[in-house]
Amino acid sequence: MRIISGEKKGKKIIPPKNLLIRPTTDKAKEALFNIITNIYDIKNCNILDIYSGSGNISYEFASRGAKKIISVDSNRNCIKFINKIAKDESFPITTFQCKAEKFIEKSIESFAIIFADPPYKYSVKNYEYLIEKVLEKKLLMENGIIIIEHDKIKDLSGINRFKEVRNYGGCCFSFFE
């Protein structure tokens, strides 16, 4: 995987082979960030990246100048890897090793962009619960957006606050306001 744009454009990031991750492809990530940068000035956004995995999305936000990024993953090795890359590249990423739902339940911050890439085995009810909790806890700023990466088999259009879905090969991004 590599960083698509920003200060660290072209930087290759090679996660350890023992991480059980499914990084967003460069093609899908580039398309996603084209959408995001047409809506938001990333430099003025607080970002929450849950189910961070390798930190791929967090690094892209950091390279593009986001001032505050929180990455959450339950896997200790993923968090260690994100911390290493954040330190090596001087990225403003704060990590939390815990389940995303637990973080959401306890967080008191709000974010302009919340990105979630849960395991593809997640059911539509799990996605719905996640979005409801984010909205209930008021973690999304006014005019903010929740972006969920999922496989193309899932249809999230029936979930409250659904805006649109974009399909890029084997993955989809569903947007919620």
How would you sum up this structure, described in words?
The chain is built from 5 helices and 7 strands; from the N terminus they run H-E-H-E-H-E-H-E-H-E-E-E. It is of the alpha/beta class and 177 residues long. Strands 3-2-1-4-5-7-6 form a 7-stranded mixed β-sheet, with helices on both faces. The two termini are 29 Å apart.
Tell me the layout of helices and strands.
Blueprint: H1 26-39, E1 46-50, H2 56-63, E2 68-73, H3 76-89, E3 93-97, H4 100-106, E4 111-116, H5 124-136, E5 140-151, E6 162-168, E7 171-176
Parallel strand pairs: 1-2, 1-4, 2-3, 4-5
Antiparallel strand pairs: 5-7, 6-7
Brief account:
With 177 residues, the chain is of the alpha/beta class. It has helices spanning 26-39, 56-63, 76-89, 100-106, 124-136; strands at 46-50, 68-73, 93-97, 111-116, 140-151, 162-168, 171-176.
- Tally the helices: 5
In whole angstroms, the N-to-C terminal distance is: 29 Å
Query: What radius of gyration results from the CA coordinates?
Result: 15 Å
User: How many β strands by DSSP?
Assistant: 7
The helicity comes to 25-40%
Lateral strand order in the biggest sheet: 3-2-1-4-5-7-6
- Broad shape: globular
Note the beta-strand portion: 25-35%
Topology order in helix (H) and strand (E) letters? HEHEHEHEHEEE
Main sheet characteristics: 7 strands, mixed
Low-confidence stretches: none
Average pLDDT metric: 94
SS content category? alpha/beta
Salient structural properties:
177 residues; alpha/beta; seven-stranded mixed β-sheet; 5 helices; 7 strands; 32% helix
